[in-house]
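Cross-posted from the bioinformatics board.
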Amino acid sequence: MAFEKLRKEETLAMRKRLIGQSCRLFYSDEPVKIIKARGQYLFDENDKRYLDCISNVHHVGHCHPSITKAAAEQMDLLNTNARFLHDNIVMYADRLAATLPEKLCVFYFVNSGSEANDLALRLAQQYTQHQDVIVLDHAYHGHLMSLIDISPYKFRKLAGQKEWVHVAPLPDTYRGIYREDHPNPGQAYADTVKDLIEEVHRKGRKISAFFAESLPSVGGQIILPQGYSTKVAEYVRSAGGVFVADEVQTGFGRVGSHFWAFQLQGEGFCPDIVTMGKPMGNGHPLACVATTVEIAGAFTANGVEYFNTFGGNPVSCAIGLAVLDVIEKEDLRGNATRVGAHLKDLLTKLQTQHQIIGDVRGVGLFVGLELVSDRDQKTPATETADQICVSTDGPWENVVKFKPPMCFSMEDAELAVRCIDRILTALTRPLSLTPGHIHKKCSSTAVSHLVEWEHSASYPAGSEALSHKRRKQASHLTVQNI
Amino acid sequence: MAFEKLRKEETLAMRKRLIGQSCRLFYSDEPVKIIKARGQYLFDENDKRYLDCISNVHHVGHCHPSITKAAAEQMDLLNTNARFLHDNIVMYADRLAATLPEKLCVFYFVNSGSEANDLALRLAQQYTQHQDVIVLDHAYHGHLMSLIDISPYKFRKLAGQKEWVHVAPLPDTYRGIYREDHPNPGQAYADTVKDLIEEVHRKGRKISAFFAESLPSVGGQIILPQGYSTKVAEYVRSAGGVFVADEVQTGFGRVGSHFWAFQLQGEGFCPDIVTMGKPMGNGHPLACVATTVEIAGAFTANGVEYFNTFGGNPVSCAIGLAVLDVIEKEDLRGNATRVGAHLKDLLTKLQTQHQIIGDVRGVGLFVGLELVSDRDQKTPATETADQICVSTDGPWENVVKFKPPMCFSMEDAELAVRCIDRILTALTRPLSLTPGHIHKKCSSTAVSHLVEWEHSASYPAGSEALSHKRRKQASHLTVQNI
């Protein structure tokens, strides 16, 4: 294919030689090589088409022509740093401000969600003059040293928990300490934060921030119970701390009904700091911190400049503006609401056919499917989840997640659910293959999308056990992309 | 002008309202609004042309058409993350490897020099299993929390020095503890690092890394004395640490004779980790860490994935490749050598006419001009440097720096030097204006470039004292851009 410059084996050999192996490939045994994309579809070097169920970064669709046009036009005109006065940065900040509660009206532009969270931590500590941070269990807030410290998902595998970091229970009403049957799980989980604050105070320490994703993603596509954030914010502020909403994965309309996932907690709730990233530039490195006049003022008061070489440059802001335009013009929030509801509905129906589906949850195009081997015990079906090679997350890696480009269609949702149905049917049916064999076949070729989806779609639902090849195809659904 | 969307006053008002004030504007009293650029020239909203003497980020020239074309073509084709196999990342790593010593052959792509330095710190600590870091006095390595800790330029104004950070003297042979008259300043300064290591060991602590810019920039455009890095590397490695060369400001041929500034220390010297950033994507957020197989291996061995959402994506790598192509095709290293030598020569001649010029130093298009009110005492002429509104750096903010786009021409160098001549002449001549007045007039309008340079260039050299307006024009030369 014209767009391929190296043979796949050569690319792979060079990758292994030249790129740090900590940077993992999807399906490293037999990685997929994608060379072009459009909308929700990816194409490999043989022009095979894949349906993308997880690229939340490519929010308005891969290679959207409006974004490319905006980028190219501004690149041709000017791309200085934000120490120069420029229209794009202020127009973009103004547009973002319009999506947020009034008090979140000061912006800092950076290059990644990690840079945004690092700055949020600095802002919180500078404003409160306190050090300690409360985070949710299993949280991930970024790859920088400061963020590994506040990410249980990472620090448990690395340097361990610092004395200034405190871990609150994940407010998971499916398998957490308070569940659906609790009369007020929002209050109950918020009280665990209150207890933690008291414990911190007993140690003579002080809280600078409560830091949480508005919908914990690596934690397992968790929907926070109603009332939780408002109560937590009240407790944290009483302790002199601030509430940081990490919207890096969840912002920009993914939840459909609202522009920001924290808004699901009601109009009465407003964080003190909001961080944003991934979908913001549709793949271009662009991220941001929004905060209040008071917090920004305290940061300015230290008298030290904050300079981010690329942050808020005219090209990044032109791209950011174009993304906002497309979200509006193509009614992608409306689409997320409609398609997300349809997807959840189909998955809920599927739950009646497959005992292994313990829970279906989500909002808009942020959906999780939790697999369990026993519905009463809620035993995580980690092995099955692993065998079917879909995107897994959560403490037991048994939550299949959907967070596709926002142009995902009704038909795409139907196709994805049909494929999951077939995979689960095949995996729970007596087979001539050992699970180990299935695992090997799947994990060696699967990718975050549906391979040859046209063929899969026409595959008769009630036919005999899937052939190796077809089973492989059907299992190519989603992969982890945190 | 067609490209201006808001009136300047409106842009300024919105900027003050919406963007954190810690993000400073150049000449905040009366900031310049730049709306287009090409090569080494910037244009404001009234189509006034400015010569850019300091934008090292826009390395191959502002808005280079080859870079825009490469970006737009790849944006239209594909922009996934680096978990997918792709040709661009491996081809780019291969091209970078060809510029480096053989042992620096493993790459990690990130979005900013700060992200690169943060990762370098992690790599060093993981590999050595030691914590402590030695840095040079006045150094700046980035805006992230981990980097403020290792940047004396920042931590002295903020949280202070951590117990694991140790500051070595800046090897400045103009005003440091060992000067030009020392028989072997390289060895003498390296020995200060050796002493520091011994002091660290006496405290029962262990060195993970010596971290330094290959040409300390914020430190005052310092050229490290010969032999320094080789000796320091020897001492640091003996202590079980690694040598990190921060090439974020200095790499990609700026020094002309070599692709990397660390190579000025001779063929025998090779760092263990090299970080790169600013010029790498000509304004696009792109940065990188290069290291050895051994260090990368130790990082992989911790078993934890390193995932950077945007790092190494096909668009960033396409841009990086295009930048390398332009550097080669337009012989920008040759240009940096020739124009840099001419600029240094002209400034050295100027030194014979202006007592205030204490030192002229530099290599390629990385040049510093140090102003002193007394040549023997080397008293920093901070106020004069401030009054003439040029880019200042160094501990006393009295070093005027040049680090222009690499397409800077002989004529540009001549013009810049003529203007400095006029500014210094005017400032040291009896005037009817108070210095305070001059300062106000200058700092309120100056910018990192020459305003209306065509007019300035034709301004007769021997005429009467400059009018306010003309003095303003002539003083528009450079500003700080770290």
